[in-house]
Amino acid sequence: xxxxxxxxxxxxxxxxxxxxxxxxxxxxxxxxxxxxxxxxxxxxxxxxxxxxxxxxxxxxxxxxxxxxxxxxxxxxxxxxxxxxxxxxxxxxxxxxxxxxxxxxxxxxxxxxxxxxxxxxxxxxxxxxxxxxxxxxxxxxxxxxxxxxxxxxxxxxxxxxxxxxxxxxxxxxxxxxxxxxxxxxxxxxxxxxxxxxxxxxxxxxxxxxxxxxxxxxxxxxxxxxxxxxxxxxxxxxxxxxxxxxxxxxxxxxxxxxxxxxxxxxxxxxxxxxxxxxxxxxxxxxxxxxxxxxxxxxxxxxxxxxxxxxxxxxxxxxxxxxxxxxx
Length: 325
Hints:
alpha/beta; Quinone Oxidoreductase, Chain A, domain 1; 6-stranded parallel sheet
């Protein structure tokens, strides 16, 4: 039997329930992984709360990224070997000691990247990568604003954008997170709970506005984010940690300066194997070359998954969080 955390009904973090499960028979295209570390992400809370429907319904095991060691392989798998260190992102079922997963979702972990780093960087790192390299191609002429600058994605965005030569502005929800953001690439950091952050962005950009705003906060930062963008700039809404955006009118984009808006998700950028490999290669290269430092600031035993969710949702965390089986 395998220890896991299950959601039988959606709701508050208390619905995360320890269970013992029996793994199904390994299919020919699958690998069995013994987890060493499991990533914790806001999307996990969306599935747990019922904001998002789990693809296979209830009950389900949450978690979409992890890292570990292959312990068994299906007959058709030839690209990996038992004992390989691997990581993955994208398939529910990570909150468990072991799991079966299609081998096509796996990547080998470089020697100089730890299991914890790999578990923490897959979703957040690949998200930062598509935001900066594809959703809006950031370069030395770019001025950007990133909300939740001290969060897991935010810290990676700050470091990577600075390396690309961009002018990087960030917002945080408390004064205690300001120095952390500054240490990770942000030239300017604004406490959006205490300061008039729209006015401050205007001052920093001398009234021009930003080329792009990366917004994972949602309700609390909309529609004010639109007032921080230059005419024909981009508003990129890629999360909703404060709640979903309601009453969005597309005419608002014309009123604010013929703005562009997008609501991207990672899996549309890595749906093909070659896209996935390209993304991971660029991400691991950024880590191994010192452009991005993956900061794991919270570690929880797997049995404390509910605590991890509570602290994430209350914004007590910074950087990445992992569960340790």
